[in-house]
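Narrative of accomplishments. A recurring question from our advisory board has been how the design workflow behaves on a single, concrete structure rather than in aggregate. To address it, we present the structure tokens for one chain from the evaluation set, followed by the sequence designed for it. No filtering or post-editing was applied between the two.
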């Protein structure tokens, strides 16, 4: 069993990584048109949440593999 402080630290690192990757890749945000107007997007909020949760799982796996 892993100590609580280490598990929490791993989760924090994974969350920080998620925030960085999501902000750089515009994950979880609707796409905006090149003119600045919001184009009609087929991405539903549920799909965006699923993308973020999948990304978080990948971030945790990457941090834990360290």
């Amino acid at each position: 069993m892993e100590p609580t402080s280490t598990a929490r630290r791993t989760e924090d690192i994974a969350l920080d990584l998620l925030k960085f990757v999501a902000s750089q890749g515009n994950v979880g945000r609707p796409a905006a048109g090149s003119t600045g107007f919001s184009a009609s997007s087929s991405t539903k909020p549920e799909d965006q949440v699923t993308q973020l949760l999948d990304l978080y799982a990948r971030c945790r796996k990457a941090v834990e593999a360290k």
